[in-house]
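User: Predict the full complex structure for these chains.
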Amino acid sequence: MIPRARWQQIQSLFDQLIETDAEEREVRLAKACGNDLELRSSVESLLESDARREDPLLHAIGEAAESLLEEHQDRLIGTRVGPYRVVSILGHGGMSTVYRGERDDAQYQQTVAIKVLQHAALHPRLRSRLHSERHILATLDHPSIARLIDSGDLEDGTPYLAMEHVDGESIDVYCDSRTLFVRERIQLFIQVCAAVQYAHRNLVVHRDIKPSNIFVTDEGAPKLLDFGIAKLLAPESLSHTLPVTRLQERVLTPENAAPEQVLGRPITTATDIYALGVLLYQLLTGRSPYRLLSYSQLQLERAICMDDPVRPSQTVVAKLSGEKDADRSRVSDRRGLSPQRLRARLSGDLDAIVAMAMRKEPDRRYPSVEALAEDLNRHLLGQPVRARQGDWRYNTAKLLRRHVLAVVAVAAVFLGLALFAGIMLWENHRIELARDATAQERDRAQQVSAFLVDVFSQADPFNAQGHESTAKDLLDRGAAKITGNITLQPEVRAQLLESIGLAYRRQALSERAIPLFEQAVAIRRQERPLDNGRIAVALANLARALTDAGHLISAEAYLEQAVSLAQSNGEPRPIETADILVQFGIFALDAKSDPARASELFGKALNIYRSALGNQNLQVAAALNGLASSAVWASDYPLAEHYQREALDIFRVTVSRNHPDNAIALATLGAILTQRGKYTEAEQVLNEALQIERNVFGADNPRIAAIESDLGILYEREGDLRRAIGATETALKLTRDGRGLKHYSVGYYLDALANLFLKANDLSTAEIDARQALAVYAQSLPTRHLYIASTHQLLGEVLLRRGSLPAAEAELRTALDMNVGLVGADSWRSARSEAGLGWALIARDKAGEGEPMLLAARSKLMAAVGPQHPATQQATAWLVQYYRAHHREVEASRVLAAPDKR
Amino acid sequence: MQVPANFTQLLTEWRSGHPQALDRLTPLVYEELRRLARNYMRAERGSHTLQATAVVHEAFLRLIQANVALQDRGHFFALASRLMRRVLVDHAKSRSRVKRNAGVRDLIAADMGEVLPPIDFDVVALDDALEGLQQIEPRLAQVIELHYFGGLTYDQIAAAVSTSPATVHRDIRLARAWLLNEIGGTRPA
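Assistant: Here is the predicted structure of the two-chain assembly.
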């Protein structure tokens, strides 16, 4: 028996320490316990038990309850049910118990599964219904459906069903125990589909498709159990006889339930299609789509109706807190792949097929089980699957809308061209009026018209066969026609090249845009060597495409040429000059990480636009966007929010909500709001942006990566690391798939992931990702860049945590040098590096050098970003830890108690 | 369900030292448990125990819907959760069953990312350990009863025993850790 005083000591320490991290815990424990080793070991062992994730208490109670609930169900064993002798229990739940029954008489020997419906006896009207349903079920005759053999009543009137007894394992256990590959799992699943399809043709809905209802025999043949039984047991069968409350109706484990089942809406064949989607999800990933550790039914039901499940490809690499790599690879091992390979295997077709089967709205799922099976067969044959195509026959409003938008987007490009043609015709007309026309001039307009007719005639977007990439196809066709075309006049060619190039760039196809812009520049130079303004614009367009494609060094060279040309222009063209300034501003941010310079360039452009075009203008909005981004880079978030809202106000009155620039502006605002701690609005705004971009550009367009990454930052701020990692990994995949492995933004997202893994305390993954990020940057960015400095900083912090002190010191020194060079010694970035370096030095027993450095860095951080900033808090924590370790309690408490006001 | 009018009365009698009241209470609890269990669908393979626990908690919630004056509710809840514990423990003691589901638990644990070797014990061991905790700190034993045998949330417990949910949370963590140590120490996994 523990003495009272002792217990209070233990309790108080435990309460203090449960929320601390391991490092701090160690320090505080050591301090509080001193030489009292017994106290220390008591508290330590309590904390260790507290860290367990399982809950044996709940399990012990559950086992007792389970045994209690089962007790009364065993009474049939040894008795006779109809012609069968009850041998044992096969399985049971609250509503029914399944026994193994044997018939062994003069006629024949047979083993059956006898399902006894527990509560049905109580309700006479249900029993009459049962009889008619049993009749229908008895007609189902399919090799993959366990047959209903017989039915009747027990002596007390309880109805029972005798069904074909299936010897085998449930489908998930079967697949895992034989380490079936993904392909084999799909083939087995397709056989299950055939059985469900057969039942649907006979107007029977299963309603309860789940792994435990599908057995696979040793010969590998699947058998569906309990077809239509769920309906016999369904609450609505009772509703006319009993006042059934909502509480009683609830399905106990609705993991596989469709939203309409949760919501009590009509059950149709689409319900089975949903459940098949869940089953496929489970077979592919080994997890349930709404996998909750909590058994709160409400949460689960909410998730089923509201949330999109994590994609299969994501779920197999997701690691929940407390999971080890081994836990994650257990699932992929069972499929004969590494986690990353499994992820790649599931990504794309299978993600899309599962998603389509599991749509929330029944009428947006596959129209039939057959269609689902067909799509899987297409996948196995390497043919394009329908789930990934835009104009799916039984399409949904959403997909239809997306398709229409793609058409509209491309139409806008060609509308621009048509306008150009119109102007040409008009000029031509004017020239003719002046009786000064040359045959050449008249030709220009006719050529553009002919070109447009040519492109459009081959690509009627409303006739496109099973594609959503209508816009890209049209552009490809246009680009192919224009590139080798020497019959067009050079001016016309240049104009068309630039229009198509611009459209490509907007579709995040900058690599395709570059050669077109290069040709346009060459034509402009050749045809009008003296028109500096025209050439400057062409150069700026090229530079922008190069920037987007990640070719920063050549982009800068072209931009410099463009600016000097625009400024040397004798006849000023203000708008074009401002356009170039904006381009340069974007470049100054993206490529040079120079917010002050960018802000100056955007400011100049803004003034030019305002005086030339007025305030309600898209170009004004673009300049404001640029100013907001510059303010973000300079960490001035209130100013950024101000500019960004101003820009959005302009979009609101000048363009539709679906305009891509509006989406980008919304996303930027979301990121700013996240930084300002306005999480609710941030999430709303980011999701709106995401939705617009997905609708307009499709779900795998790399443009979306930026928004996913912004969401990742938001989730991280909200403390949901798992979702944060998921979103950032999506951003990374989109970028790698869409922009290639060496694009600098691949490095950026790797850095973001490394940061998240550091927070999740997965230090080895963090280190790998940070190093990969640096490798990508080395191939894509100038040698000195804020991104690179940031990653060195991060890597340094990871190495500090890993205890690789000399390496950490080296990384932090690199970060510090680079930051001082880029943003000055007083910037918080430099101070953060300095703080880390100071701590690294202290840890390497060079406190004489490290302590003053850490102290000074903390003061700078206080002055630059205030005490609440994570960098300041980290510096403070280090300082306190150092003081405490050296028993300088007074200084430690001073640092903690009174924030430095300097 | 109608909570029998004498449920409250019986509970009070039981705690005032009339063991025969337990004989009349137990069937009420059994009946409620079975009735609820029947209304749930056939359980998923591998998650029987969680479902059974959910049935217990649901039954508890229904039993405590008795008409009890607000100031007596904390006391009443404590009695009801003690009763639920008694029913489960007595049932477990009356049977020494072969575990039907051995092995299933390991599967679940594996899926959830077990960090330490699992501690496995039954409700009788839990009951013994709770007696020990009762001696040291009755408050902790009570929150464990309310949370695990009654299924009350931290908020509900906080309201019932007039404290904050944060305190309840801390108490449960400490109590749970203590119980695990106690049981793990005497019956190594």
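The mean pLDDT of chain A is 79.
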